[in-house]
Amino acid sequence: MTTPEKKKSTAEEPWPVRVVSQMISAWIARLGWVWVEGQVAQISRRPGTSTVFLTLRDPSAEISLTVTTNRDVLDLGAPELKEGARVVAHAKPDFFAGRGTFSLRADEIRQVGLGELLARLEQLKKLLAAEGLFDRARKRPLPFLPGTVGLVTGRASAAERDVLDNARRRWPAVRFRILNTAVQGPAAVPQIIEALKVLDADPAVEVIILARGGGGVEDLLPFSDEALCRAIFACRTPVISAIGHETDVPLIDFVADVRASTPTDAAKRVVPDLAEERRLIATARGRLERAMRHHLAREQQRLDAARSRPVLANPTAMLDQRAADVDALRHRAHRTLGYRLERADDDLRHTVARLRALSPAATLQRGYAIVQAADGAVVRAPADVSTGDALRVRLAEGELAAKVVAT
């Protein structure tokens, strides 16, 4: 007979359910014994039977497995086991072919103590720090006045009231988008991660607050979960961690952009104080007014000093001086020109007088005459002419024609 491992199933030759169930059981059995860690979500002890059923949940995801064990095994390793506790179990996967169900069969269960939890958290802290999740350089500043504040907290919790009341008391117009989730127990981490994704995808939300009141170390364990730390690191929106009291320091405090000591402190950090801002504005306005008054007074002094100068006190003084200078120069030029004209006139008269005194006409006026030959030569001696020569006699008032009769 051909075994299913050597012959593939077809529509004409399908495998029976029992064969498929046997194959699944064989494949699961190959995993062998493993150590598994998780958080106890449910414990079921059935009366009259020695079998105990546990629901083991992953703290960081919506995944759970059923674990079966003997009552003696549970009493030996974790006699006071309660829901919400962390355990480590040595178990082997089993597939029950009759019911088609899968579970883990444990032969040893250990409850994780507080000291061991803290040691694991310290180891996780070093790992995340080495990867740069705590780097201060990547932390983003908070917006001065966010349009909408995202709030992830427990339903109707004191932390929610503290954040809302204090924020609205500081800035009455602040808007919140609130997502209520579990803040402890197995369901806390998956719900908080999902709420972070929703708020981070909302463009109206400019800052996110994770808030929870105080509690024991076990109660605050979800806020030290690795998956939650990485989800906060991946957020594009600034995140404020407000978990517990001042002494509570879960790992998300190191990853968040801002760590608030309490939910009330987160409310003070996320929005400004309206009264304080008004006081600052009034102070700034007073300083600005004083500065402007001082500046105006200083400029007024400069204007007064400029106006007191002669050039501005009597703007026409310079023009009057220049006009007086022009008049003086004009009178001086007039006098100088007149003086020069008078001297030139005197010089001309004297020259004319001298010219007249030296002119032959003046001599002719005294009764003298000028005798000229026919060719115009002046006759100075009788020898210059001959008898019968025509002469020309020039007098003061005209000329005479003459003829030499005798020399």
UniProtKB/TrEMBL annotation:
Catalytic activity annotation: Exonucleolytic cleavage in either 5'- to 3'- or 3'- to 5'-direction to yield nucleoside 5'-phosphates
UniProt domain Exonuclease VII large subunit C-terminal: residue ranges: 133-350
Lineage top rank: taxon: Bacteria
Top-level EC class as recorded in UniProt: hydrolase
Domain OB-fold nucleic acid binding: 16-110
EC numbers for this chain: 3.1.11.6
Cited function: Bidirectionally degrades single-stranded DNA into large acid-insoluble oligonucleotides, which are then degraded further into small acid-soluble oligonucleotides.
Protein name in the entry: Exodeoxyribonuclease 7 large subunit
